[in-house]
Design a protein that fits this description.
Elements (H helix, E strand, L loop, with lengths): L6 H12 L34 E12 L4 E12 L14 E10 L7 E8 L5 E3 L5 E4 L2 E6 L2 E7 L3 E8 L5 E2 L5 E3 L7 E18 L2 E18 L5 E11 L4 E9 L4 E9 L5 E4 L4 E10 L6 E10 L2 E7 L5 E4 L5 E12 L2 E10 L10
Antiparallel strand pairs: 1-2, 1-13, 2-3, 3-4, 5-6, 6-7, 7-8, 8-9, 9-12, 10-12, 11-12, 12-13, 14-15, 14-23, 15-16, 16-17, 18-19, 19-20, 20-22, 21-22, 22-23
Length: 362
Protein backbone atom coordinates (compact mmCIF):
# COMPACT_ATOMS: atom_id res chain seq x y z
CA UNK A 1 0.00 0.00 0.00
CA UNK A 2 1.38 3.42 -1.00
CA UNK A 3 1.54 5.95 1.80
CA UNK A 4 0.39 9.50 1.03
CA UNK A 5 3.11 12.15 0.82
CA UNK A 6 3.38 14.53 3.76
CA UNK A 7 2.02 18.00 2.91
CA UNK A 8 5.45 19.65 2.94
CA UNK A 9 6.79 17.14 0.39
CA UNK A 10 3.76 17.71 -1.81
CA UNK A 11 4.52 21.43 -1.87
CA UNK A 12 8.19 20.87 -2.68
CA UNK A 13 7.34 18.42 -5.45
CA UNK A 14 4.83 20.80 -7.03
CA UNK A 15 7.37 23.62 -6.89
CA UNK A 16 9.99 21.45 -8.55
CA UNK A 17 7.63 20.47 -11.36
CA UNK A 18 6.58 24.09 -11.87
CA UNK A 19 10.11 25.48 -11.87
CA UNK A 20 11.28 26.95 -15.20
CA UNK A 21 13.88 25.01 -17.18
CA UNK A 22 17.46 25.73 -16.27
CA UNK A 23 19.47 27.85 -18.73
CA UNK A 24 21.94 26.05 -20.90
CA UNK A 25 25.39 26.46 -19.45
CA UNK A 26 28.45 27.42 -21.41
CA UNK A 27 30.76 24.48 -22.11
CA UNK A 28 33.76 26.26 -20.55
CA UNK A 29 32.09 28.26 -17.81
CA UNK A 30 30.35 31.65 -17.92
CA UNK A 31 29.81 33.31 -21.28
CA UNK A 32 32.36 35.90 -22.41
CA UNK A 33 31.72 39.54 -23.30
CA UNK A 34 33.18 40.22 -26.74
CA UNK A 35 33.13 43.30 -28.99
CA UNK A 36 31.01 43.48 -32.12
CA UNK A 37 27.79 42.06 -30.65
CA UNK A 38 24.65 43.95 -31.69
CA UNK A 39 22.34 44.29 -28.70
CA UNK A 40 18.80 43.17 -29.54
CA UNK A 41 15.67 44.58 -27.96
CA UNK A 42 13.38 43.70 -26.28
CA UNK A 43 15.44 40.53 -25.68
CA UNK A 44 18.35 42.37 -24.05
CA UNK A 45 16.08 44.13 -21.59
CA UNK A 46 15.84 40.69 -19.99
CA UNK A 47 18.23 38.49 -18.02
CA UNK A 48 21.37 36.83 -19.40
CA UNK A 49 21.85 33.79 -17.13
CA UNK A 50 24.89 32.39 -18.96
CA UNK A 51 26.94 35.43 -17.84
CA UNK A 52 28.47 35.63 -14.40
CA UNK A 53 26.90 38.81 -13.04
CA UNK A 54 24.18 41.25 -14.07
CA UNK A 55 22.33 44.21 -12.61
CA UNK A 56 19.40 46.52 -13.22
CA UNK A 57 20.21 49.77 -11.44
CA UNK A 58 17.63 52.54 -10.95
CA UNK A 59 18.54 55.88 -9.42
CA UNK A 60 16.77 59.21 -9.33
CA UNK A 61 15.48 62.33 -7.65
CA UNK A 62 11.95 62.69 -6.28
CA UNK A 63 9.93 65.70 -5.15
CA UNK A 64 7.11 65.29 -2.64
CA UNK A 65 3.90 67.34 -2.44
CA UNK A 66 5.53 69.24 0.45
CA UNK A 67 8.51 70.09 -1.83
CA UNK A 68 11.03 67.76 -0.20
CA UNK A 69 13.90 66.66 -2.44
CA UNK A 70 14.78 62.98 -2.04
CA UNK A 71 17.04 60.52 -3.80
CA UNK A 72 16.17 56.88 -4.41
CA UNK A 73 17.95 53.76 -5.57
CA UNK A 74 16.60 50.32 -6.51
CA UNK A 75 19.00 47.63 -7.71
CA UNK A 76 18.50 43.98 -8.61
CA UNK A 77 21.56 41.78 -9.08
CA UNK A 78 21.71 38.33 -10.67
CA UNK A 79 24.77 36.17 -9.93
CA UNK A 80 25.49 32.85 -11.63
CA UNK A 81 26.60 30.04 -9.31
CA UNK A 82 29.18 28.30 -11.48
CA UNK A 83 29.80 25.51 -8.97
CA UNK A 84 26.21 24.31 -9.52
CA UNK A 85 26.59 23.78 -13.29
CA UNK A 86 26.79 19.99 -13.07
CA UNK A 87 23.89 19.54 -10.66
CA UNK A 88 20.58 19.06 -12.54
CA UNK A 89 18.37 19.25 -9.46
CA UNK A 90 15.64 21.91 -9.52
CA UNK A 91 16.52 22.56 -5.87
CA UNK A 92 20.11 23.56 -6.71
CA UNK A 93 20.85 27.30 -6.58
CA UNK A 94 22.05 27.97 -10.15
CA UNK A 95 21.39 31.70 -9.84
CA UNK A 96 21.30 34.08 -6.88
CA UNK A 97 19.19 37.23 -6.88
CA UNK A 98 20.04 40.20 -4.68
CA UNK A 99 18.02 43.35 -4.10
CA UNK A 100 19.16 46.69 -2.70
CA UNK A 101 17.02 49.77 -2.15
CA UNK A 102 17.50 53.11 -0.42
CA UNK A 103 16.02 56.57 0.01
CA UNK A 104 18.29 59.58 0.54
CA UNK A 105 16.40 61.78 2.99
CA UNK A 106 18.14 64.96 4.28
CA UNK A 107 15.61 65.28 7.11
CA UNK A 108 16.71 61.88 8.40
CA UNK A 109 20.40 62.56 7.79
CA UNK A 110 21.27 59.06 6.58
CA UNK A 111 19.77 56.48 4.24
CA UNK A 112 16.61 54.50 4.62
CA UNK A 113 17.94 51.22 3.23
CA UNK A 114 17.18 47.52 2.95
CA UNK A 115 18.51 44.44 1.15
CA UNK A 116 17.53 40.89 0.25
CA UNK A 117 19.21 37.82 -1.17
CA UNK A 118 17.48 34.70 -2.49
CA UNK A 119 18.24 31.72 -4.71
CA UNK A 120 16.34 31.91 -7.98
CA UNK A 121 13.49 29.49 -8.52
CA UNK A 122 10.29 28.13 -7.03
CA UNK A 123 8.50 31.26 -8.22
CA UNK A 124 9.84 33.22 -5.23
CA UNK A 125 12.73 34.93 -7.01
CA UNK A 126 13.34 35.09 -10.77
CA UNK A 127 14.80 37.17 -13.58
CA UNK A 128 13.00 36.58 -16.88
CA UNK A 129 15.00 36.36 -20.08
CA UNK A 130 12.55 37.89 -22.59
CA UNK A 131 12.19 41.37 -21.04
CA UNK A 132 12.82 43.18 -17.77
CA UNK A 133 10.95 41.31 -15.07
CA UNK A 134 12.89 40.53 -11.94
CA UNK A 135 11.55 39.94 -8.46
CA UNK A 136 12.46 38.76 -4.98
CA UNK A 137 9.33 37.95 -2.97
CA UNK A 138 7.31 41.20 -3.03
CA UNK A 139 10.17 43.31 -4.40
CA UNK A 140 9.87 43.65 -8.17
CA UNK A 141 10.97 45.56 -11.23
CA UNK A 142 9.22 45.04 -14.55
CA UNK A 143 8.90 46.77 -17.89
CA UNK A 144 5.74 47.15 -19.98
CA UNK A 145 5.47 49.33 -23.10
CA UNK A 146 8.49 51.52 -22.24
CA UNK A 147 7.37 52.03 -18.64
CA UNK A 148 9.27 50.50 -15.72
CA UNK A 149 7.41 49.69 -12.52
CA UNK A 150 9.33 49.29 -9.26
CA UNK A 151 7.48 48.05 -6.19
CA UNK A 152 9.45 47.66 -2.98
CA UNK A 153 8.05 46.80 0.45
CA UNK A 154 11.07 47.31 2.69
CA UNK A 155 11.09 47.01 6.45
CA UNK A 156 10.79 50.76 7.18
CA UNK A 157 9.75 52.25 3.84
CA UNK A 158 8.00 51.52 0.55
CA UNK A 159 8.43 52.52 -3.08
CA UNK A 160 5.76 52.22 -5.77
CA UNK A 161 7.08 54.04 -8.84
CA UNK A 162 6.34 54.17 -12.57
CA UNK A 163 9.21 55.38 -14.78
CA UNK A 164 8.40 56.24 -18.40
CA UNK A 165 11.04 56.45 -21.13
CA UNK A 166 11.31 59.88 -22.77
CA UNK A 167 14.41 59.21 -24.91
CA UNK A 168 15.97 56.33 -26.84
CA UNK A 169 18.21 54.11 -24.74
CA UNK A 170 21.93 54.93 -24.71
CA UNK A 171 24.43 52.22 -25.68
CA UNK A 172 27.64 52.78 -23.75
CA UNK A 173 31.14 52.14 -25.10
CA UNK A 174 31.25 50.69 -28.59
CA UNK A 175 27.60 49.98 -29.40
CA UNK A 176 27.07 48.56 -25.90
CA UNK A 177 30.49 46.91 -25.42
CA UNK A 178 31.92 48.77 -22.42
CA UNK A 179 35.59 48.14 -21.67
CA UNK A 180 36.69 48.34 -18.02
CA UNK A 181 40.46 47.99 -18.45
CA UNK A 182 43.26 47.57 -20.99
CA UNK A 183 42.32 43.94 -21.68
CA UNK A 184 39.28 43.30 -23.85
CA UNK A 185 38.27 40.54 -21.43
CA UNK A 186 37.53 43.15 -18.70
CA UNK A 187 34.27 44.41 -20.16
CA UNK A 188 30.51 44.38 -19.94
CA UNK A 189 27.50 44.78 -22.17
CA UNK A 190 26.01 48.03 -20.97
CA UNK A 191 23.21 50.42 -21.83
CA UNK A 192 21.53 53.27 -19.96
CA UNK A 193 18.09 54.86 -20.07
CA UNK A 194 18.39 58.47 -18.89
CA UNK A 195 15.64 61.04 -18.34
CA UNK A 196 12.99 58.57 -17.17
CA UNK A 197 9.87 60.45 -16.02
CA UNK A 198 8.81 59.24 -12.54
CA UNK A 199 5.42 59.25 -10.85
CA UNK A 200 4.23 57.24 -7.87
CA UNK A 201 4.24 56.95 -4.10
CA UNK A 202 6.73 56.44 -1.33
CA UNK A 203 6.14 55.51 2.29
CA UNK A 204 8.36 56.37 5.25
CA UNK A 205 7.59 55.40 8.84
CA UNK A 206 4.00 54.58 7.93
CA UNK A 207 3.28 57.84 6.06
CA UNK A 208 2.65 57.65 2.28
CA UNK A 209 3.26 60.55 -0.10
CA UNK A 210 2.77 61.16 -3.82
CA UNK A 211 6.04 61.93 -5.62
CA UNK A 212 7.31 62.85 -9.06
CA UNK A 213 10.78 63.21 -10.52
CA UNK A 214 13.42 61.98 -12.94
CA UNK A 215 15.32 58.70 -12.93
CA UNK A 216 18.14 56.83 -14.64
CA UNK A 217 18.38 53.10 -15.39
CA UNK A 218 21.57 51.12 -16.04
CA UNK A 219 21.49 47.51 -17.23
CA UNK A 220 24.84 45.74 -17.35
CA UNK A 221 26.03 42.15 -17.60
CA UNK A 222 29.49 40.58 -17.59
CA UNK A 223 31.58 37.60 -16.59
CA UNK A 224 34.89 39.37 -15.91
CA UNK A 225 34.07 42.91 -14.87
CA UNK A 226 37.16 44.14 -13.06
CA UNK A 227 40.79 43.84 -14.08
CA UNK A 228 42.94 42.11 -11.41
CA UNK A 229 44.73 45.44 -10.77
CA UNK A 230 41.47 47.27 -10.04
CA UNK A 231 40.11 47.85 -6.52
CA UNK A 232 36.90 49.75 -7.26
CA UNK A 233 35.26 52.47 -9.29
CA UNK A 234 33.72 55.93 -9.23
CA UNK A 235 30.58 56.29 -11.40
CA UNK A 236 28.04 58.98 -12.22
CA UNK A 237 24.73 58.97 -14.10
CA UNK A 238 23.56 62.56 -14.60
CA UNK A 239 20.26 63.85 -16.01
CA UNK A 240 20.86 67.39 -17.26
CA UNK A 241 18.14 70.04 -17.21
CA UNK A 242 18.44 70.73 -20.96
CA UNK A 243 17.56 67.08 -21.75
CA UNK A 244 21.15 65.91 -22.07
CA UNK A 245 22.75 63.10 -20.08
CA UNK A 246 26.19 61.97 -18.94
CA UNK A 247 27.39 58.55 -17.83
CA UNK A 248 31.02 58.46 -16.71
CA UNK A 249 33.18 56.11 -14.69
CA UNK A 250 36.76 55.57 -13.69
CA UNK A 251 38.33 52.34 -12.47
CA UNK A 252 40.92 52.83 -9.70
CA UNK A 253 44.11 50.88 -9.04
CA UNK A 254 45.58 49.97 -5.64
CA UNK A 255 47.21 53.40 -5.32
CA UNK A 256 43.91 55.16 -5.95
CA UNK A 257 44.94 56.36 -9.40
CA UNK A 258 42.77 56.27 -12.50
CA UNK A 259 43.42 52.91 -14.13
CA UNK A 260 40.71 53.22 -16.79
CA UNK A 261 38.07 55.80 -17.55
CA UNK A 262 35.25 56.12 -20.07
CA UNK A 263 31.81 57.62 -20.53
CA UNK A 264 28.92 58.56 -22.78
CA UNK A 265 27.71 62.12 -23.32
CA UNK A 266 24.33 62.89 -24.86
CA UNK A 267 23.78 66.51 -25.87
CA UNK A 268 20.48 68.36 -25.63
CA UNK A 269 19.87 67.73 -29.35
CA UNK A 270 20.22 63.96 -28.86
CA UNK A 271 23.68 63.64 -30.40
CA UNK A 272 25.64 61.02 -28.46
CA UNK A 273 29.38 60.39 -28.30
CA UNK A 274 31.69 58.10 -26.39
CA UNK A 275 34.29 59.58 -24.05
CA UNK A 276 37.75 58.17 -23.33
CA UNK A 277 40.18 58.91 -20.52
CA UNK A 278 41.66 61.83 -22.49
CA UNK A 279 38.20 63.47 -22.49
CA UNK A 280 37.83 63.35 -18.69
CA UNK A 281 39.37 64.43 -15.45
CA UNK A 282 38.29 63.31 -11.97
CA UNK A 283 39.17 65.74 -9.15
CA UNK A 284 37.89 65.10 -5.59
CA UNK A 285 37.06 68.33 -3.74
CA UNK A 286 35.88 67.26 -0.30
CA UNK A 287 35.84 64.07 1.74
CA UNK A 288 33.46 62.72 4.37
CA UNK A 289 34.41 60.28 7.15
CA UNK A 290 31.85 57.61 8.01
CA UNK A 291 31.35 57.29 11.78
CA UNK A 292 30.15 53.69 11.30
CA UNK A 293 32.67 52.09 8.94
CA UNK A 294 35.58 54.49 9.41
CA UNK A 295 35.90 54.88 5.62
CA UNK A 296 36.74 58.24 4.02
CA UNK A 297 34.81 58.96 0.82
CA UNK A 298 35.37 61.78 -1.68
CA UNK A 299 31.74 62.95 -1.73
CA UNK A 300 32.21 66.18 -3.69
CA UNK A 301 33.87 66.25 -7.12
CA UNK A 302 34.90 68.41 -10.03
CA UNK A 303 34.45 66.33 -13.16
CA UNK A 304 35.81 67.34 -16.55
CA UNK A 305 33.90 65.53 -19.28
CA UNK A 306 33.68 66.23 -22.99
CA UNK A 307 34.60 69.92 -22.67
CA UNK A 308 32.38 70.53 -19.62
CA UNK A 309 33.60 71.26 -16.09
CA UNK A 310 30.97 70.00 -13.67
CA UNK A 311 30.77 70.25 -9.90
CA UNK A 312 28.99 67.36 -8.16
CA UNK A 313 27.44 68.36 -4.82
CA UNK A 314 25.91 65.67 -2.56
CA UNK A 315 22.30 66.00 -1.41
CA UNK A 316 23.71 64.97 1.99
CA UNK A 317 27.08 63.61 3.07
CA UNK A 318 25.95 60.41 4.78
CA UNK A 319 24.78 58.23 1.87
CA UNK A 320 26.85 55.19 2.84
CA UNK A 321 25.23 51.91 1.84
CA UNK A 322 25.98 48.86 3.98
CA UNK A 323 25.23 45.68 2.00
CA UNK A 324 27.40 43.23 3.90
CA UNK A 325 24.43 40.89 4.39
CA UNK A 326 24.04 40.40 0.61
CA UNK A 327 26.98 41.47 -1.57
CA UNK A 328 29.46 41.81 1.27
CA UNK A 329 30.32 45.43 0.42
CA UNK A 330 30.15 48.85 2.06
CA UNK A 331 30.16 51.76 -0.36
CA UNK A 332 28.88 55.30 -0.91
CA UNK A 333 25.96 55.75 -3.29
CA UNK A 334 23.96 58.91 -3.34
CA UNK A 335 22.09 61.76 -4.96
CA UNK A 336 24.13 64.71 -6.25
CA UNK A 337 23.34 68.12 -7.73
CA UNK A 338 25.23 69.11 -10.88
CA UNK A 339 26.61 72.63 -11.32
CA UNK A 340 28.50 74.32 -14.13
CA UNK A 341 29.94 77.81 -13.62
CA UNK A 342 28.21 77.87 -10.18
CA UNK A 343 24.79 77.33 -11.80
CA UNK A 344 22.56 74.27 -11.22
CA UNK A 345 22.23 72.34 -14.49
CA UNK A 346 21.09 68.86 -13.46
CA UNK A 347 20.80 66.08 -10.93
CA UNK A 348 22.03 62.52 -10.75
CA UNK A 349 23.73 59.82 -8.73
CA UNK A 350 27.31 59.16 -7.70
CA UNK A 351 28.66 55.75 -6.71
CA UNK A 352 31.99 55.23 -4.91
CA UNK A 353 33.17 51.64 -4.38
CA UNK A 354 36.33 50.00 -3.06
CA UNK A 355 37.37 52.74 -0.62
CA UNK A 356 37.25 50.67 2.56
CA UNK A 357 38.59 47.50 0.97
CA UNK A 358 38.95 46.24 -2.62
CA UNK A 359 35.61 45.46 -4.22
CA UNK A 360 34.90 41.83 -5.02
CA UNK A 361 32.04 41.04 -7.35
CA UNK A 362 30.41 37.71 -6.43
Amino acid sequence: MTRPLPDVLKVLLLCALAAPPLPARAADGPAAVVPGVDLQFPRDYGSHPSFGIEWWYLTGWLTTASHESLGFQVTFFRSRVATADDNPSAFTAHQLLIGHCAISDPARGHLWQDQRIRRAGMGLAEARTDDTQVWIDDWQLERHADIYHARIAAEEFTLDLAMAATQPLMRNGEHGFSQKGPALSSASYYYSEPQLRVTGRIGRAGKTQIVSGTAWLDHEWSSQYLDPKAVGWDWVGLNLDDGGALMAFRIRDQEGRTYWSAGTLRAADGQTRSLSASDMGWHPQRRWHSPRSGVDYPVQWRLEAGGHTLDLMPLMDDQENDTRLSTGAIYWEGAVRVQEHARDIGRGYLELTGYGQPLTLR
